[in-house]
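Q: Second attempt. The first request was missing the SMILES, so the protein and pyridoxal-5'-phosphate are both included now.
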Amino acid sequence: MKRTPHVLAIQSHVVFGHAGNSAAVFPMQRVGVNVWPLNTVQFSNHTQYGQWAGEVLAPHQIPELVEGIAAIGELGNCDAVLSGYLGSAAQGRAILAGVERIKSINPKALYLCDPVMGHPEKGCTVPAEVSDFLLEEAAAMADFMCPNQLELNSFSGRKAQSLFDCLAMARALLARGPKAVLVKHLDYPGKPAEGFEMLLVTAEGSWHLRRPLLAFPRQPVGVGDLTAGLFLARVLQGDNLVSAFEFTAAAVHEVMLETQACASYELELVRAQDRIAHPRVRFEATAISL
Ligand SMILES: Nc1ncnc2c1ncn2[C@@H]1O[C@H](COP(=O)(O)OP(=O)(O)O)[C@@H](O)[C@H]1O
Ligand SMILES: Cc1ncc(COP(=O)(O)O)c(C=O)c1O
Ligand SMILES: [Mg+2]
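A: Got both inputs this time. The predicted holo structure:
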């Protein structure tokens, strides 16, 4: 029988709704992965509501929790680490120390870093020390990075001017160490208005994918976290990177369709669960080059 993969997922938790682990854990489980959620914050709701209650986990808790798992002899069963929103560079360094510890016991373990910097237009940004940390330190250790275009622009210090420019930026990030860069959401002048586009860049090649752009009165939050979690889950299930990319686009689109049909602001993950596991739609990634 095929072993069930295990993922240590280090990101935020919201009590109500879906963002961070609250957007990623259930879908990862639904596609067949055991998830160990390590919640970096516990907030009442995601921050786009403009108000929330709750607390940030003290940075020393991250190594303590990882050591606790080591102490019961289970850390070597960790197949991958997923990290999302970071409150500080210190929290990021604690995560990298955990990744290093896990890779020393299980050299095959993977690390996916979602370099969350928020959307300036959504009113959510991270301190400069966090973006420096992501580019200078996390990229060197990550097997996969999943920025959106705003995050990629921020790494590059300029705005992408074309699709090929996005590709060049993703390749520059790839050159810092990861095996693959998944750009979850492209944005460039001249992008067709009716499409939502993504990019996968590896040492072997680059692939572009377009799915329909759906209209929402308020953009749902947590889509990036869902995307990163599903991509990692499918890679751990044995998909090649292009198949995992195509699966992720389809499964996320199914969630967006269900969310739109329910006129919901929060992602309809429970209602869409069968379609997450078995998407009815399919989008083909097409190879592109510079
Ligand atoms: N098919 C779609 N149609 C319309 N909006 C979408 C679609 N897929 C994702 N989105 C929206 O696009 C943004 C996704 O951007 P991305 O950068 O991947 O993630 P996030 O902002 O969640 O980290 C979110 O605002 C999400 O609600
Ligand atoms: C607590 C929390 N975690 C994570 C996120 C990131 O979500 P997204 O996937 O939309 O980038 C947000 C966005 O507002 C948030 O409030
Ligand atoms: Mg995001």
